[in-house]
Amino acid sequence: MATVDDVRRQFRNPPPEGRPMMRWWWFGPSIDRDEIDRELEAMAAAGLGGAEVAFVYPMGPVTAPFGSPEFLELVGHAAQTARRLGLRFDVTLGSGWSYGGPHVGPEYAARQLHWDRREIGAAAYDVPIVTAWPGDEFVAAYVGDGWGGAPSSYVEVPARDGIVHVPAGGQPREVLIATSRVTGQQVKRTAAGAEGLTLDHYSAAAANEHIKQVAEPLLLAATPELLGSVFCDSLEVYGGDWTPTIFDEFVKRRGYELRPRLYELVVDTEGSQQLRIDFGRTLSELYEDNFLKVFRQWAAGYGVPFRIQSYGEPPATMSSYRHADIFEGEGWGWTRIPETRWASSAANIYGRSVVSAEVWTWVHSPSFRATPLDLQGEAHEHFLSGVNQLIGHGWPYSPSDGPGLGWVFYAAGALDDRNPWWPSATALLRSLHRLSWLLQQGTPVRPVKIYIPASDAYAAVRAGHAEPLNLYRVARRLIPESVPRTIREAGLDFDLIDDDALDVLDPADAPLVVVPEGTITPPETQRWLDAVVAAGGKVIADVSTLADHLPPPPLSPQQDVGVVHRRLDDGDFYFVANTGAEVRTLTFDEPLERWSALADDAELTDTITLHPYESAVLVPGTTLEAGAAASADQLIITLDIGWSVAFGKDSHPVTVPHRWEDELTTYSGSATYRVEVELPDTTGRLILDFGPGEPVAPDSEPYLPDNSYRALVTPPVGVAADIWLNDTHCGSLWAPPYQVDLTSAARPGVNELRIVVHNTAANALSADQHLLDAAAEATALHGRRFDLQHIEHAADYLNSGLLTVPRIVRRT
Hints:
Blueprint: H1 4-11, E1 21-27, H2 33-46, E2 50-56, H3 69-84, E3 88-95, E4 100-101, E5 111-120, E6 125-128, E7 137-145, E8 155-157, E9 159-160, E10 163-166, E11 173-182, E12 197-198, H4 204-222, E13 229-232, E14 235-236, H5 246-254, H6 272-300, E15 306-308, E16 312-313, E17 326-330, H7 339-349, E18 355-359, H8 372-384, E19 389-396, H9 425-438, E20 443-444, E21 448-451, H10 454-460, H11 471-478, H12 482-489, E22 494-497, E23 512-514, H13 523-534, E24 538-540, H14 546-549, E25 561-567, E26 572-578, E27 584-595, E28 602-610, E29 615-619, E30 634-638, E31 644-646, E32 651-653, E33 658-659, E34 670-679, E35 685-689, E36 694-695, E37 713-714, E38 717-718, E39 720-725, E40 728-733, E41 739-741, E42 749-758, H15 762-765, H16 769-782, E43 801-802, E44 807-811
Parallel strand pairs: 1-2, 1-19, 2-3, 3-13, 13-15, 14-16, 15-17, 17-18, 18-19, 21-22, 21-23, 23-24
Antiparallel strand pairs: 4-12, 5-11, 6-10, 7-8, 7-11, 9-10, 20-25, 25-26, 26-29, 27-28, 27-29, 30-44, 31-32, 31-34, 33-43, 34-42, 35-41, 35-44, 36-37, 38-43, 39-40, 39-42
Protein name: Glycoside hydrolase
Pfam families: Glyco_hydro_106
Organism: Kribbella sindirgiensis
């Protein structure tokens, strides 16, 4: 906790904590010391806080095979260089995802329960146990009277000496044979030499084998004292619903035998719903005990935090996060329930002040199309979902002397210094650092709790059915989309809660709990909900009436504007962000202090205008003195004539607006626009105004998937610019309101205005045959491990240059 004065004092120059980091992809591995140093130095110069190293598929000749002494030495060198530069250094405990590799044989591999269903007659049958695939293990066999899926109950039949002995019966019957089968899933996107099966996340022996073979050599190579954390990416072990010890674990945890009723996982009976709930709960506990706890305790032995994206398959609960040190999510959508909300709710409930997110995962696909405005807009969405540490996705390692643009990751923005707009990155990252640090201060105010229908999700997962063993995804589907949207659009915030969270959450601290009608609530949970009501709170089942029960918001809600409310020792502050492409205005009952992450000054105001994708920090109860009211802007001059442009050294006259793609379709880089400006009077504040930009339709790029974020504005400066007046740098532009203050550099008489415009590297990407050749060669040598995402759309909808007629206005 901190005071308002503490936060105000440090907001302009916050400590390093909270600086955005980057996931740093090492391809191959094909790496060398000089390029490691160069890229880390570029990260530090831009204001990044560090790198999380991820080892992925080859893009060129492999120079340091994964796990080799040469490879481990380079990991250690990178860690030492990062420390020298003041950067945090994190390591992913494996190559690709999920954990696994060549050390994972059938005894350690992820397994799935496979069912063979056969109709038989009344005679006795001896059925040989056949292992169709290496690693197959017979589990049990059952017979039931009837056929065509009719039996409602079955009895186990004996199996001896490799034979299932089905006794004679009085009518046609059905036989079910359960086999434990290795899923066969290979680790995704691995480096060369790291290929293999994904491991069994329910087995401590499998976890310890991975630690021995992969994780410990990596951690020791990096040196524990130099590591910020060790990392596990999202859980994507598809269909892994079995482990050899589950019969013993089930009876120990649930108090009854699973084996006689195992068939109820595929057959509906009177008690099958509860058995499926108990089965799913057992899998969640085995994941926690034999994977999460094992890795956290091992890392703790070296004094290193364990960070994880704990959602997906196996069925991690929200509260599973409590067995890790740093909770991480991904996915944006402030009015929805993305994975970031799964993580940020757990962080709040279990007392973690920092919650990170993999951000910009599919930003404005394909690689190099993302603009600084795209990055700012998506970052705000994560902040609104409770995140306060950004892990960018990401920075592709790429040799500086390679042909073309170099290497990119198949499904993400290439967010490094190859982008022509990189000169604006320093100011953008500084602003995101300020907001991340600020949102780590105090505690969040989230008056509404949404109960996660975990039992319903477990019950919905049936062997042989299409429903995934992904508790987060199923639970999100079971919670009506209107619930989070109604809460957020009312100017309020919420936490998700689950059954385990109730052990640490006081019913008196949950004034409003949403439990959608028909949700299965265990007896202990129902008693907790009754205690909420006894403490004066409300439990809402009819979600259509939710808006009628919400408490009044601290700030009046406004369309597209999200609010984060945090409480300090002696006051509150609010982070507000416009998530849309239209201007929004907020009016308050009393003046509030406004801070901007992009400026050093503060103002006292009872009305604020939020331009598209703009954010602000609001502090009530301030002692700041109000300044003079601002007058309307007075036009001084419209800069419509006299321009020249230079791509390199040679300049020529140009008429603005000026769009590069009309004549230089594949040019990526910078261009310098110049004009002389006559200013007879420089009193007041002189603002260079480019206009608001043009909103674009959400479906204007139809190839983009729903999770690919893009800001719905065509900027007047495409896509970023640095503004100089009389050789004085006045500021960088990449986001609305697209205005720069010229006052300090202006002088009466003739002034030289210089606008250096930077576009994206997408124009060059559209003509980069070298990248396509590198991908094809890597596939020919190492098999198909990736496909370059949407690369054929690199040239779609590009707008570079000075796309408007600027003007200078006076503001008093």
